[in-house]
Amino acid sequence: MATAKPPARPAILSANALLGGEVVYFGAAGWTVRLDEALVAADADVLARLEAVLADPGTERDVVDPAFVAVTLDDAGRIVPDHYRERIRALGPTVRADLGPQAEGKHRHVSL
Amino acid sequence: MKLLDRAGWIEDPFVRDGADANLLPIEAAREALGRVRPLGIEVPPTADPDSLVGLFNQVDLIAVRFPGHRDGRGFSIGRALRELGFTGRLRASGELIPDHFAFALACGFDEVEIDEARAARQPVEQWLAAAGVIGPTYQSVRDGRRSIFAARRAA
Amino acid sequence: MYRYDEFDEAIVRDRIAQFRAQVARRLDGSLSEEEFVLIRQMNGLYLQLHTYMLRVAIPYGTLNSRQARQLALIAERYDRGYGHLTTRQNIQFNWPRLADVPDILELLADVEMHCIQTSGNCIRNVTADHLAGVAADEIEDPRPTAELIRQWSTLHPEFSFLPRKFKIAVSGAVHDRTVLAIHDVGVQIVFDEERGGIGYRISVGGGMGRTPMLGKVIRDFLPKEELLSYLEAILRAYNLAGRRDNKHKARIKILVHEIGLEAFRERVERIFARLDRTSIDVDAAERARIAAYFAPPPFADLPAESAALEEARRRDPALDAFVRTNLIRHRQPGYAALTVSTKPIGGVPGDVTAEQLRVLADLAEAYSFDELRIAHSQNVVLPHVRLDDVPAVWARLVEAGLATANAGLVTDIIACPGMDYCKLATARSIPIAQAISERFADPARAAEIGPIGIKISGCINACGHHHVGNIGILGLERQGIENYQITIGGDATELAALGERLGPGVDAEAVPDVIERIVAIYLAERAPGETFADTVRRIGIEPFRPALAAPKEAVREAA
Questions:
Q1: pTM over the 0.95 mark
Q2: Contact A95 C27 (CB under 8 A)
Q3: Is ipTM > 0.85 here?
Q4: Per the structure, how many domains does chain C have?
Q5: Which of C34, C37, C240 to mutate to test binding with chain B, by most B CBs within 10 Å of its CB?
Q6: Which domain holds residue A46?
Q7: B130/C152 touch (CB, cutoff 8 Å), yes or no
Q8: Residues of C227-240 as b/e, b for ≥16 C-beta within 10 angstroms?
Q9: A102 to chain C: closest CA residue
């Protein structure tokens, strides 16, 4: 189970799905591949909920390596990961536009 | 703590605490030599197998500590103890998982000791299954099985 | 090549059954993720940025057509239609699902392949000269030795939970094509008449990463029959004393460095003297049994030159260019080895599609005694092609996009997957390789520059071997942006050397310019016949420092 520092700024929770391996984010209805559905720990309640997910031993039945990811909300209120590693995770390999979420047109607002 | 060997859970005739303690750290064990029988010594993963040779005849059990599931020093210690001629009981104790069991047996351990929580999470059936899932392997081993190289020689 | 007997086959199948059970125990919660990580790594399964990655072992880089076709099938059925060749002669699949891995393993086992110990804190794939059985400077084919080490190290009960990974390479020739000096243990086959003929020079403590070191000779001459016992002694000394407190200080190179080679040698020799060697070493019959699989193929008796090839070269300049760069002289007259470049201009170094794997399988089967090699350069080699057949092989390679005539040249760049794929990376490496490749796309220019090895790593773990690149590039992060440090002076041959930093790191956009300036300085300074590496050895790295600065600043410095 991950030991994660509480985030210093708006953050979401991300992991990889245990069975399929795909990048997932923790949303209102649980783990989702859609970045826009991720719960943002901008307030204490959501932060507490995400921390509870990290602390829950059952979480590793669903995902691997859950961790907080710092994000910024753009002008349109869309979630954009701060670090370029997380933007690559949201898109797919930058050298293969035909692979990863980007190939399905996902997360278009995220750019490297 | 719970103890198992290749057949399943077994009773532990050794005790670490109390007046009848007979499984002791090395220094305390040295003091108990000749007085306590059966006698077991507990060795850390930093132990030098050569330094224990003088105790072999007076000690019935050597318990080698495995402090973490990634820490394989005990395998070298156990195997070295057998090579140096120790014929008593050899125990692997600590943070082991069923996937270590076959390796431990191959290195000459007779038994594995784990805590209750671990035993509950990884029941004995998993240990016994894990011990037998791989057939003959290439290395010469001490669990009674023939190595692949030996089998080829015999063929 | 080696063929499994029933014992080899059983181990691989048993390991799959074991892995299935381990996955089941992970899914039902009896194995924690923390416990499962090492277990899945010991079967080659990583978690990377986007999803899992499965690393398939290609022992000493040798593959046959049946295996290559199966890899193609796996790529199509369970992955995204391609695989990636690594600097340790393995192949990686980047998109497997955990649930599918046992089935993938069964398909691999059907063709005598596996993923055993391609990751984890255990003895990894044993690598060897990709020109085994080809090169004229060969003393003895390294692959029987490598195969013996592979078997001995597989599921070794004492050495499966080492402080860290352990990499062994075997070289059987005068010239080293295995980068022996950067391995935890290097096994160099030597011939010494006075000491009984063929034996091994054993080096220890090489490694890349945060603190790169070159291996040191621990045993000048080890009789052949003592190899496995001696390796056991080294491994035991390491297993007992290697650091376990800090992942970045856990390799054997750190232990040798901290206690000194002499002290380490004493420990090893003491252990070695007490081992029961008869139970560890194999006898001559077993060595002969293994060696028989690597006997030379039934070469035809051919003239040293091929009139047909020479004529074809005269007619086709592109074929001529390919022969000049990618054809390697063979010890057998009338034959050659061909380097199949996986570095097309602007391409992803080391990636091969399923279709390309099938073409390579067909070519190997039809033209190369059913054999392929994977080199640590990430290129593929067809080891035994008749000179007469080179035009036909080349034509097929052209169709398949595998005929880039750049072996060993400036666009034959070694690059790790970097942050486009790898969770450990601090920066991307592939786009840097692509940019440099495109900048130097002109074949005439590449020919003028001559042999030069650029190696790129996307993090300090140095899987791209940048420390031993003639030009090394290390991708780091600085203030939230990718930043690249350039090193010069590395050498991956028997003249092994670690590169030295030129200066502060530069942005991604600046890298091709810096490489151009380095090359320009080399071209200005080189003596006739000098390769880049030769020139650096002669003049040192100082003359190259101005390359980091943009042209007008460089001029100002020179004035």
A1: yes
A2: no
A3: yes
A4: 4
A5: C240
A6: 11-81
A7: no
A8: bbbbbbbbbbbbbb
A9: C50
CA atoms within 13 A on the CB side of B135: 13
Alpha-carbon gap: C365 to the closest alpha carbon of chain B (Å): 31
E-only strand ranges, C347-492: 351-353, 372-374, 380-386, 414-415, 454-457, 471-478, 481-488
Instruction: List, as ranges, residues 111-140 from B with C-beta within 8 Å of C.
Output: 121-123, 126, 129-130, 133-140
pLDDT of residue C551: 63
- Asked whether residue C36 carries a pLDDT value surpassing 90, the answer given is yes
- What residue in A sits closest to C479 (Cα-Cα)? A83
Q: Are residues C138 and C287 in the same domain?
A: yes
Query: How many structural domains does chain A have?
Result: 1
Residue C329 and residue C366 in one domain: yes
Helix (H) or strand (E) holding A72: strand A63-73
Q: Establish if C120 belongs to a structural domain.
A: no
pLDDT of residue C221: 98
SS3 state at A73: strand
**Residue B107 pLDDT class (50, 70, 90 cuts):** very high
In 3-state terms chain C splits into helix, strand, coil percentages (rounded to 5) of 45, 20, 40
Task: Indicate if the pLDDT at residue A2 is higher than 80.
Answer: no
Is it the case that chain A and chain B have 3 or more CB pairs lying under 8 Å apart?
Answer: no
In a domain, C189, yes or no: yes
Cβ–Cβ of A20/C99 closer than 8 Å? Answer: yes
Q: Is C38 in the same domain as C140? A: no
Topology classification of domain B2-154? TIM Barrel (3.20.20)
Q: Is B51 on the interface with C (CB under 8 A)?
A: no
Write the burial class of residue C160 (CB in 10 Å: 0-12 exposed, 13-18 middle, 19+ buried): buried
Band of pLDDT at residue B145, cut at 50, 70 and 90:
confident
pLDDT, one tens digit per residue, over A25-79 is: 999 999 999 999 999 998 889 999 999 999 999 999 999 999 999 999 999 999 9
C160 reaches B (C-beta below 8 A): yes
Asked if C98 and A83 come within 8 Å (Cβ–Cβ), the reply is: no
- What's the whole-number mean pLDDT along residues A75-86? 96
Nearest-by-Cβ selection for B73 from C29, C151, C239: C239
Q: CB distance B137–C11 less than 8 Å?
A: yes
Distance from CA of C250 to the nearest CA of B (A): 12
